[in-house]
Amino acid sequence: MKICYLGYDFFYSCLEEIFKLENIEVIKIFTFETDNKYNFNCNIEKIAKENDVPIKYSRITKEDIEQLIQEGCELLISAGYEYKIPVFPESKIKQINIHPTLLPIGRGPWPLPYIILKDLKKSGVTIHKISDEMDKGDILIQEEFEIQSNEDIETISCKSQIIAKKLIIKLIKNLDYYYKNATIQGKGEYWPFPTVEQMTFTGEMTINEIDRIVRAYGKMDSIVYVDGEEILVHDINYWREKHNYKLGKIVHKTNREYVMAVADGFLVLRYFEK
Fold it and tell me: Is the separation of the CB atoms in 268 and 241 below 8 Å?
């Protein structure tokens, strides 16, 4: 089977697993330019180079897919690809997408923070058919996992990636079966890209409220303003204590940390950038 893969490094382990399969040929890879600070594609580039597969950075077009079909491509796999993909009939090429939530809940471009912000008790990974409407294609296969109380975006990302690479191999090996037994999605929920306001916390908030925001964005940064200056926060610690400090005030500094007074205690900003 000839395959085209579209994505960046978030699900790159899926591509690694695909190359281990017998009778599978990846004939082209589509990715996009990344900042290599928050989003990366260095592993995708490395895999393409090691396996001598052509890689393209521009948006995939209808003409690109028509060319893939002419070259015998049977399956197009999207895994975190940022552009809308032209949809073709299944009789010409099968097109699937790997999505890091239990669809139909959590449609959208970056759903992972909402899993924590909404205090969900479970999430998962879904592989579905690509459709004209975002993340609404028929479900082919999915698997759930539990969300623990201390989860952050990094742990949820890792869980999603581990499950995704297992599901994509299971799907490819039994592609016709899963296509035959695909299920239509229900109404579901769409989660839009988070706003700056959603990513921002203040000293007036409680420790639990702040902790949830910081865990939801992790290394992608949450935001706090100190004396009018924006600070990008990667990680925090804290303790609860009654105090009379002005909320949001930095009451102590070390070589690397700031201590901020908040509604029900003190917040230690451990990893941050100004």
Answer: no
Is cis: bond before 104, omega within 30 of 0? yes
Whether residue 135 sits in one domain with residue 82 = yes
CA 154, 107, 30, 130 dihedral sign is positive
Q: Do 79 and 134 fall within a single domain?
A: yes
Which of 95, 176, 100, 186 shows the shortest CA–CA distance to 143? 100
Helix (H) or strand (E) holding 259: strand 258-262
Q: Which of 63, 215, 242 is nearest to 147 (CA)?
A: 215
Q: At CA 82, angle to CA 273 and CA 110, rounded to 5?
A: 55
The pTM for the full model equals 0.95
Calpha distance 274→271 (Å, rounded): 10
Domain carrying residue 260: 207-273
Q: pLDDT tens, 126-182?
A: 999 999 999 999 999 999 999 999 999 999 999 999 999 999 999 999 999 999 999
